[in-house]
Amino acid sequence: MLPELLQSPDLFHLLHRIDIDLADQQQKAGCPFCGSTLHYSNYQRQPRGGPPLADELSIRFSLCCSNEKCRRRTLPKSTIFMGRRVYFGAAILIITTLNQNMPQEYSKNLLVQLFEVNRKTINNWLAYFREIFPKTEIWKTVRGLIGCEVENQNLPESLVKHYCEHSRSPESAILNCLGLLSTGLAAV
Ligand SMILES: [Zn+2]
Fold it and tell me: Ligand 1: distance of its center to the CA of 71 in Å?
């Protein structure tokens, strides 16, 4: 079920709608550096590991300060893009989870073939979730809100599993997880 989700345009439509709201919230909040009004200066980005997105969906919302003396760029939180990584956040989450959950069925060699991602990249993602993510403020904030069955050493698989058990579909589980990873707000 999880691998098929990465080919589902519906998932990316939903994520895009969340990103519109996240960008809108940031725009209303104003420039984080000087408080001035922010203007949109979006650009196109086509992440890897999912379906090719239509132009109106492959938008990285971006905001630029209107104050001449500041002019700094602010990137709103996003559920489609995970930082500066070239793969979809959903792809990173699902590929690492498949490998952790079913290492025989979804060996790294198979994942390399299925998702056109190289081994080193998968290892980097796994290392991120093992070593860096557990120490992030986002994880520390939501850790207490989620049951203790979510073990730090099996992230992100333990988190995805938790959401799958508490969501009505794998799709809403992935939406909740990506919402959590981008905003630090736990939906369950
Ligand atoms: Zn500013």
Answer: 6
